[in-house]
Amino acid sequence: MDKKQYRKSMKETLKTMDRITYEHLSHQIAKSLYGTDEWKKAAVIGITVSHFPEVDTWQIIRKGWEEGKKMVIPKCIPASKEMMFRSISSFNQLESVYFGLFEPMEEETEAITRDAIDTLIVPGLAYDREGYRIGFGGGYYDRFLMDLKAKTISLAFQKQIESSLPRETYDIPVGKIITDQEIIICRQ
Q1: Whole-number Å distance between alpha carbons of 42 and 28
Q2: Around Cβ 158, how many Cβ atoms within 10 Å?
Q3: 3-state secondary structure of 131
Q4: Which of 16, 160, 172, 186 would give a disulfide with 145, using CB separation of 3.0 to 4.6 Å?
Q5: How far, in Å, CA of 109 to CA of 74, rounded?
Q6: How many angstroms from the chain centroid is the CA of residue 149?
Q7: How many CB atoms lie within 10 A of CB 90?
Q8: Residues 125-167: tens digit of each pLDDT
Q9: pLDDT at 97
Q10: What Cα–Cα distance (Å) separates residue 175 from each residue in 60, 65, 66, 130?
Q11: So what's the pLDDT on residue 188?
Q12: Measuring CA to CA, how many Å separate 110 from each of 64, 143, 146, 184?
């Protein structure tokens, strides 16, 4: 299968998950995340606002605030296919943009430099055990991950882990994948 076929197939697989299972598994993944050094040592965490059926990040953002962490959310710039991160302290600072995704409102949030991010939670649809992923097709994260100093983690349901995936030369693996069943160390 090529990346486009993987995206379509995984979206269909994830849509079959019922809400109770989704909430339960998302909670298990979040609990595992909170036990990692990447979470404990981070003052600034980059994370997307999830959209079902991605692993629920709303609870993770709340937990970050409770622990005094700066939670920074990406804002995409479609013209240049780049993204920047902005700090939010309330979900009221979000607006719904294209495809129903939530992004920070520029006038109510502070821009954060990429070097200020300690841990970046990288979204995706499918992953292999080496940390390579198939994202949602925009290429925003592949560009952002180039020369990034932050620790990188992806959160995934176990059914999103594949034995192998197609790769491009520009694909950059994440350091760790946390699922509802295991923590996969991909690279150091």
Answers
A1: 20
A2: 12
A3: coil
A4: 172
A5: 11
A6: 16
A7: 9
A8: 999 999 999 988 778 898 899 889 999 999 999 999 999 898 8
A9: 86
A10: 19, 24, 25, 8
A11: 52
A12: 17, 22, 23, 33
Dihedral sign for Cα atoms in the order 16, 3, 103, 33: positive
**3 has a pLDDT exceeding 80:** yes
What share of residues in the chain are helix, strand, coil (percent, to 5)?
Answer: 35, 25, 40
Phi, psi (rounded to 5 degrees) for 62: -60, -45
What pLDDT, on a 0 to 100 scale, did the predictor assign at position 131?
A: 95
**99 pLDDT higher than 60:** yes
Q: Which two tokens stand for residue 150?
A: 């932050």
Query: How many CB atoms sit inside 10 A of residue 160's CB?
Result: 22
Two tokens, residue 180: 């509802």
Distance CA 45, CA 103 (A): 15
Within 6-121, strands assigned E span: 44-46, 70-77, 82-88, 94-96, 102-104, 110-112, 119-121
Q: What is the pLDDT of residues 46-73, one digit of tens each?
A: 999 998 889 999 999 999 999 999 999 9
Average pLDDT over the chain, rounded to whole?
93
Are 153 and 36 contacting, i.e. CB atoms less than 8 angstroms apart? yes
